[in-house]
Amino acid sequence: MSHTVKIIELVGLSEQSWEDAVKNVVWEASKSIDGITGVEVLNMTADVRDGKLYDYKVNVQVAFPVKNR
């Protein structure tokens, strides 16, 4: 039996942390994608204001199985 997985790239945002940004993107993606099996963080960035980090951003790949017809 062969398994095929689809991978899409998404951007997650948070005002709190990179971890929260990943959780946000997975939560939002799971509303329209069934069966998410994994996530890979590709890049993490944030804006800086007055020497402090804010607006955390993550680029992630989300994996989920392709359904057989």
Please explain how this structure is put together:
The longest helix is centred in the middle third of the chain and has 13 residues, at 18-30. By secondary structure, the chain is α+β, with helices and mostly antiparallel strands. It is built from one helix and three strands. A three-stranded antiparallel beta sheet has the order 1-3-2. It has a single domain (5-65), classed as Flavin-binding protein dodecin (Dodecin subunit-like). The mean pLDDT is 94.
Described by strand count, sense and barrel closure, the largest sheet is: 3 strands, antiparallel
* Mean pLDDT across all amino acids: 94
Count of helical segments? 1
Count of the separate structural domains: 1
Which shape, going by the Cα principal axes?
elongated
Along the chain, the helix and strand elements come as EHEE
How many DSSP E strands?
3
Radius of gyration: 14 Å
CATH-level-4 superfamily name: Flavin-binding protein dodecin
Layout: helices, strands, pairs:
Layout lengths: L4 E10 L3 H13 L7 E12 L2 E14 L4
Antiparallel strand pairs: 1-3, 2-3
Defining traits:
69 residues, alpha+beta, Dodecin subunit-like, three-stranded antiparallel β-sheet, 1 helix, 52% strand, elongated
